[in-house]
Amino acid sequence: MLSSFQDRGREGCQHQGIPAAGAMDERAHRLANALAGNTQDCATLEITLAGPTLRFDAPACFALAGADLGATLNGQDIPRHRPLVARAGDTLAFGARPALGVRAYLAVHGGYALPPVMGSQATYLRSGFGGFHGRALAKGDQVPLARPLPAGADLDALAQALWNLRVYLPSALGGRTRAGIRFLPGRHWNEFSAASRRAFAEAEFRISPQSDRMGYRLTGPALAMDAPRQMLSEAACFGTVQVPAGGEAIILMADRQTTGGYPKIAQIATVDLPLLAQCAPGHALRFEPIPLEEAQRLDAARERAFAQLHEALAPLRALLNDGESS
User: Fold this and answer.
1) DSSP secondary-structure letter at 150?
2) Structure confidence by residue, pLDDT tens digits, 99-116
3) Rounded to whole angstroms, how far apart are CA atoms 285 and 207?
4) Kind plus residue range of the DSSP H or E element containing 4
């Protein structure tokens, strides 16, 4: 349906009008990279709802994270969150729509051979640059790997050694579902009516079909300021909740514009952005407030968990490095 290469985003360019783009679910993107023995900056293939059929023309180690999209290798079910080996000629395919989640991330050891644009391999679809020719993948595309496994490597031994590795995900990286998406008051929270603030914190909203990587438009109670006014545009952030004059809130996502002039009622806590990224149109959302200190603590805990995982996966990286040199 929509598969594009994404990394952690194009940083340092918003002041020039260049959107950041990047992975919608950064947690899953980073997790797939870690399990493939990569740094977190390598691009992964972000796969939405219905995945492609991919043929490996060279041997590679790969890993999947994010939503369970029914992945198979040569017709056999394969797990997420494990380093796996594909031989030349193997076919990776995806099955039915998942019950939970909508985006999976495919990392290959060594990354994809994609030219960086302004320091990033992220695809910005609206302007057509970055990633693979600035667009989503299409039938017949051939994507080179930056560092395929050597053709003469003992792939059976490598695959068995990787399978024997014990991979434990820290609880902070488990991706558990929550009843409510946590938020902090936005820049203009106190300018919204008491009824609007109460509705945002207590009522149910749904993600509209008019939603994409740029933003999620919400249907639900109309939100309004006590005294609407014109505002100067300000920098836009991932997870900012803006409210246009019509009263329907919009959550800015990975492909958000660089600036916005609508009032900001809330900011989604960074730790819950991956949960939001896995929601499809029609999904019901509830929001709950979180203190700034708690949001910061959870964010720091997630970073510590990634550092612990990186350390624990040192044997994996050693195996892959030995496989490349053999």
Assistant:
1) P
2) 678 999 999 999 999 999
3) 8
4) strand 2-6
**SS3 for 186?**
coil
Looking at this protein, which amino acid is placed at residue 230? Q
Report the C-alpha gap between 153 and 8 in whole angstroms.
Answer: 31
Q: What angle in degrees, to the nearest 10, is found between the helix axes of 26-35 and 292-312?
A: 20
Please report, for residues 61, 91, 99, 307, the alpha-carbon distance to residue 75 in angstroms, rounded to integers and kept in the order given.
Answer: 18, 8, 20, 35
Instruction: Confirm if 98 and 67 have CB atoms less than 8 A apart.
Output: yes
Q: How far apart are CA 152 and CA 244, in angstroms?
A: 59
Among 219, 212, 214, 223, CA closest to 279: 212
First to last CA, the chain: 38
Residue 98's pLDDT is 65
* 227: pLDDT strictly greater than 80: yes
- Condensed to tens digits (0 to 9), the pLDDT of residues 118-147 reads 999 999 999 999 999 999 999 999 999 999
> For residue 32, what are its two tokens?
């797939």
